[in-house]
Specification:
By secondary structure, this protein is an alpha/beta fold. The protein has a single domain (2-197), classed as Rossmann fold. 34% of the residues lie in helices and 20% in strands. The chain is built from 7 helices and 7 strands. The protein has helices at residues 26-37, 81-90, 124-133, 154-158, 164-169, 171-188, 190-197; strands at residues 7-11, 43-45, 49-55, 67-73, 98-104, 112-116, 139-144. A 7-stranded mixed sheet has the order 2-3-4-1-5-7-6, with helices on both faces. TRNA binds at residues 19, 76, 78, 124. It is an enzyme of class 3 (hydrolase). One of its GO terms (biological process) is rescue of stalled ribosome.
Length: 201
């Protein structure tokens, strides 16, 4: 029955306006963009999240893409697993159709990469999700935010806002590309999406 099951697309971040512009919140920014593209708005959900039911992308023949739930946990990043597990259960989504969007310091700023499974790379949101689900086998959309300068700790770097230059020259394109990558993933599958998204520009 997996072919008819919806997708769950979760953008990670921390709640509240004080975190909204942080590099750590870029996953949540992409979910906001996906909701905007579908004319939807995220609503408070009992799974400790804000969520909307949508159709993502355009399928073969120009028909609307697959059904999906786009969501942002309302918990802090290091407690993302509980809301994700609850959303999967509530909407009857198999873990094979979970897509997690997150910031990635090991990818150059402005790049987007797709993968299935793998480690958490010190990312507390991923660590929480893996622990709650008991598996690492879920899709990730890794959104490159670059490495911290000098001796700055990674945790401090990702909790800083994007710079004014980044917000003007990089962030809009990064969010757009990551949203495109999600639509590719759910409409054509991981391998074809990787070929398209990872292709040199």
């Amino acid at each position: 029955m997996i072919d008819s099951a919806p997708w769950l697309v979760v953008g990670l971040g921390n709640p509240g306006p004080g975190y909204a512009g942080n590099r750590h919140n870029v996953g949540a920014m992409v979910v906001d963009e996906l909701a905007r593209r579908t004319g939807s708005s995220l609503r408070t959900h009992k799974a400790r999240a804000h969520a909307a039911q949508v159709r993502l992308g355009v399928g073969p023949g120009g028909v609307p893409g697959p059904a999906a739930v786009v969501a942002v946990p309302s918990s802090y990043m290091n407690e993302s697993g509980g809301p994700v597990k609850a959303l999967l259960s509530f909407f009857s989504v198999p873990v094979e159709r979970l897509v997690v969007l997150h910031d990635e310091i090991d990818i150059d700023p402005g790049l987007v990469r797709l993968k299935l499974g793998g480690g958490e790379g010190g990312h507390n949101g991923l660590r929480s999700i893996t622990s709650a689900l008991g598996t690492r086998d879920y899709h990730r959309v890794r959104i490159g935010v670059g490495r911290p300068p000098g001796r700055m700790q990674a945790a401090d770097f990702v909790l800083k806002d994007f710079s004014p230059t980044e917000r003007k020259e990089m962030l809009p394109f990064l969010v757009d590309d990551a949203a495109d990558a999600v639509e590719q993933l759910v409409t054509v599958g991981l391998l074809d999406a990787q070929r398209r998204v990872h292709a040199p520009r």
